[in-house]
Amino acid sequence: MKALLVIDVQNGIVNFGNFNKELSRIENIIKDFKKSNLPVIFMRHFDDDENSSLYRDSEGSELHSSLKEYADYVIEKQTPSSFFQTDLSNILEKYEVDHLFITGFQTEFCCMFTAITAFDRGYKVTFIEDATGTVNTEETYEMKGLDIRDFVGTVLHWSNVIEVFDYDEYIEHYKYENAPIK
């Protein structure tokens, strides 16, 4: 069975930039999964540092209002991996999931770490590159011209073990005009 992971779509991240395209793509993918009665699992990152935008009890740590109603499950985490010290594995076992689709935020951290960890645990992984976003920029990494999403997608694609698509390729490969995900 397939499942969708929606990683860290939280106010403390989404409100840092204009992520309308990413949110729209994520919402469309969620609707595909819902139409096919496939699980949609949200990951919620939190920090214990009161100065963090993702502090546990802050507005920033809450799921973004545009998507939170879609969550079948919300799992809290404190590391980039959605698997480390969480109930994610148990939920995936319950649904007999063998194929994970990755969307969400902090492309180069939480999305990438989760994709790699999922593969290491034996899941087929589809990383939808342009349905991820990050608040970091080329300035963050002092690498002029760096396109973080493209870089992460390229690295994962080169691994030859993680399927990397952009949204249009996802539609072409997994969905045929209003048909459920195959």
From TrEMBL:
Coiled coil (residue ranges): none
Source species, domain of life: Bacteria
InterPro entries: Isochorismatase-like_dom, Isochorismatase-like_hydrls, Isochorismatase-like_sf
Keywords tagged on the record: Hydrolase
GO molecular function: hydrolase activity
Keyword Isomerase included in the entry's annotation: no
Domain Isochorismatase-like intervals: 3-155
UniProt KW Zinc keyword: no
Protein family membership: Belongs to the isochorismatase family.
Name the UniProt record assigns to this protein: Nicotinamidase-related amidase
The organism's taxonomic lineage, starting at the top: Bacteria, Bacillati, Bacillota, Bacilli, Bacillales
